[in-house]
User: Fold these one by one.
Assistant:
Number 1:
Amino acid sequence: MKNLIYIVLCLSVILTDSCSHSLKIYSPEEIQTDSTGVRILRKNGKRVNGIVEQQTTNSLNEAIVRHTKFVDGIGVEIRDYIDDECVGHIEYTNNQISGTYYGKYENNSYTMSMKDGMADGPCKLFGPNGKQIYEIIFENGNRVKTYDFDSNGNKIIPVEEKLDLVAYQTGFYEYVNYNYNDILYCPIVIMKFKNISDMPIDNNESVKITAVFVENEEELSSGNTYLIGYSDPPLSPGVSRQCHIMSSVGRTSYYGIYNANISCQLAINGKPFKTIKIANELRPSNRM
């Protein structure tokens, strides 16, 4: 169903259709666009005043009739129909499809933010009881995020979006193996995350941070740590917590850190988060 909603809601396609059946209806073949973006009739060059009707299908192969209403060659409104029932509409802004699209799908309704003919911003799906049940975030027609909602209509925010990386430091940490009297200068990244939500984050929402250390496009090592693990206390709203990850591979010479070209690819709960360049300097502590 979510894939269907996504396809149905992507109206950043055909810009030709509309409403009021009392106006003259034209086919797309009868009009063209002049150099100023105004729709004109092919047969006489006059500006279009009426409706341009186009038929298409949705992902269920149901016929959809799209109407675009033009006044003096300028688009002012779009209405979509299924079996003569209006299932969606939006008004033009400055001759562009921008604003909020209001639609319905089966027993559900939705709103979608559009800009310059493309989905841009939140698309919200509401159930028959009026409570929101799903949300898609678009940027320039591309889907970038999705959210589910609980039975009370509350958005379920992924734990990684409740955290903000407020500070970090990188460098090389002097690791001493006293059993063999060896010293290794290992790349390290030290991070400070803050809970920016209004609720504590407890161990029911574990936060695993993974790091992959890369030098000259070759993986050196990988590691992970838990910012919030099974035995950790909750992270309160507005409170920060530090953690660090150190590479198991490093330089045997202190002077070797200055010609290193190492980066660290970070992920939170398996989702790519950030790539950080490792500073070519000695880090005396694993805390900031």
Note: The CA atoms of residues 212 and 222 lie 4 Å apart.
Number 2:
Amino acid sequence: MTGRTKQAWYMVLISTLEKAVNFSRPAKVHDFSQQSPDAFAFERTGEHQASMTGQGRNVRRGDYLLLQIDQNTALYQVQNIDYYSSPADMWTALLIEAESPD
């Protein structure tokens, strides 16, 4: 393996590991509270759980979503997220209600 090929292979490996264990950055808070209710689909699936479909880049597992639900502001943490292939910034996520990010 040449030096350049080895370096490319390492970069792919590091990127894959970062995605798998979410080391790439600390959790972020994404504010959806000012968006129109038509901008995303939110559905409670349990007492403290929900699913949501929305648009926006860089939402990742472990991030927090600030939402306006039934006249109340709620904070949810992303437990799992899958992006659609088209449009590329559309996703669906499983959420759990959260107190506040640390």
Note: Residues 3-21 form the longest helix (19 residues).
